[in-house]
Amino acid sequence: MEIRIIAIIISLAALGMFLWLLFGKGQKPWNEMSKDEQKKKKILVTGGILVFLAGVLTAIFAGKKK
């Protein structure tokens, strides 16, 4: 049961990071970023999505009995 709670907390944190990277007030518009900044942002957004999905899948399947 505690694994589910931890997985949910991690996935919510990843979702928050993902949303902040997309809609945060301090973010530069895409066309004003250098190529390196765009690459870093793509990696961070992709990482946030992957961690969110991993947390959700862990929360779903962690409590299933065989």
What is this structure's SSE topology?
Blueprint: H1 2-23, H2 35-61
Helix pairs in contact: 1-2
Residue fraction in strands = under 5%
- Helix-strand string: HH
Low-confidence stretches: none
Shape: elongated
Based on the model shown, name its key terms:
0% strand, mainly alpha, 66 residues, 2 helices
Description:
- With 66 residues, the chain is mainly alpha-helical.
- The longest helix is centred in the last third of the chain and has 27 residues, at 35-61.
- It is 74% helix and 0% strand.
- It has two helices and no strands.
- The mean pLDDT is 86.
- It is elongated and about 45 Å long.
What's the short story on this structure?
The protein is built from two helices and no strands. The protein has 66 residues and is mainly α.
